[in-house]
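tool_call: predict_structure(chain=1)
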Amino acid sequence: MHATQWMRNMAAAGLLAATTLAAAAPPQVIVVKTPHGFDAAVQRTEKAIAAKGMGLVATASASRGAAGRGVKIPGNIVLMVFRNDYAVRMLAASVPAGIEAPLRLYLTEEADGTATIRYSRPSAVFAPYGSAALDAMAKELDPVFDAIVSDAATK
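tool_result:
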């Protein structure tokens, strides 16, 4: 094998290893059990998102998709949350960080009939980008997301 080809192969292997390592280390996920049923928890979370001045940008739900095909699986939904002024600030600080928006809240139906909310704090999501401006924005968003989840999960 020619030295140049060997170097290309090693560079590709290094990139693959780095990508694999990055994918294996997601930001810390916070898990909050709620006393609410799945549908109530979804409604409460959507209400809390609006009450905290954030936007529900999109939703994705495998359980709703399955129900449309006549298949019943436990409830799950990803609520994608952000706001345009934060989007503008995020992109000014780091264009590559745009892949992280909107931020996500993941709700799942538990066997006992309650729901669980999972999310990563914005500061953890945006930390890898190494931008002071992005870190400052994310620290503003941490208490907003904490409050959304707390409001949705309380009795």
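agent: The radius of gyration is 19 Å. Proceeding to next step.
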